[in-house]
Amino acid sequence: MNNNGASTLDKLDFQILSFLQEDGRMSFTVIADKLNVSIGTVRTRFNKLIEDGTVNIIGRVDPDKVGFRCYAHIAVFVRPATLKEKVAQKIARLPEVSFLAMTSGDYDLEVDVMCRDNNHLVDFVNDISKIEGVHQTKTTIYFKVYKYAQPDLKLLE
What we know:
Layout: H1 11-22, H2 28-35, H3 39-51, H4 63-66, E1 70-78, H5 84-92, E2 97-102, E3 109-115, H6 118-129, E4 134-142
Antiparallel strand pairs: 1-3, 1-4, 2-3
Helix pairs in contact: 1-3, 2-3
């Protein structure tokens, strides 16, 4: 671990992660062959990455193909500002939320949600508007998502 609590990853860790981003089902044997290391080395590194929370294994679905027809960004204004953490914690527990962050801009929290349809989105916005501290919301519906991706690890090189 380094000073900020993050694991120290080396070039081999990043290479393993890059292969898994290409194909999350790629076998340790294939990865080991491509990197010219032993299967045991890949397995050990992978298990360390799982244990320290650097990577987790999920099945990533295409929201549109499974029935989420309304994807939106919601700007949340919190008053008083001392309630930001409590509001964020409550919003984070909602299953529609795919992204949540505190911002430094005009609003306090940025929330991305995936809803079945516009009526579901209206219900969601009405529900978060009832949370103590939520002063105002501003919703932008994404008509079409062109890219939805994980970070490209090559950008860290």
